Amino acid sequence: MRNLARIKELLIDKCGGLMNCIQTLSKCKGPSGFSTSKVYEIIRPRAQKSFAFKFIWRGFVPPKYAFTTWLCLKGRLPTKDRLRFLAVDEKCSFCGKETENINHLFFTCDFSRQVWEEVRNGLGISRKTGSIKGAIKWAYRDARGSRLHSKIGPLAILCSVYHIWRTRNALIFEGTQAVASKTRTIIIYQVLRILYKIAPGGLRASVS
Ligand SMILES: [Zn+2]
Prior knowledge:
There is one protein chain. By secondary structure, the chain is mainly alpha-helical. The protein contains 11 helices and 2 strands; from the N terminus they run ααββααααααααα.
């Protein structure tokens, strides 16, 4: 449901208001009724030229990872600093010390720094970064080519953003304890699982 709310927000923004959005959606009809692919095309055009868009929305990337990272990059994830109108406590869900904004939550918080550090060590990634834009820039440069190894960096970023956000939400909404080593293990497992799906035989050579 939260994803649907974000898509709605994105559509209204792209169409230039709610009324324009309703009119545009009324034209999104395919041969068998309402066409989600036509809705996707509304979101797509202005971002099409962006290297970040091409980097994030790729065939081997699960949509949930791409979508969360895209919202993170655009500053659209509902971190606490964006929920001031609800008068919520703005302190970081993980450390409780700093204001929870995208940069702190994903990169400068002790929890996230530990997750990134352990993911980088686990997957043999040498580069460090302190922002989502920086991470995407270096991974985009390193990700050229078709070798399986070129997909490790991008997948590590996309998967880490998704699972850090998921860990944060589980902490808030389900009361689940946030443990960096647990989140790190899930991220590394998911990256390796996707790489294995892409090329079962090439995984050993790429991560060794
Ligand atoms: Zn924090």
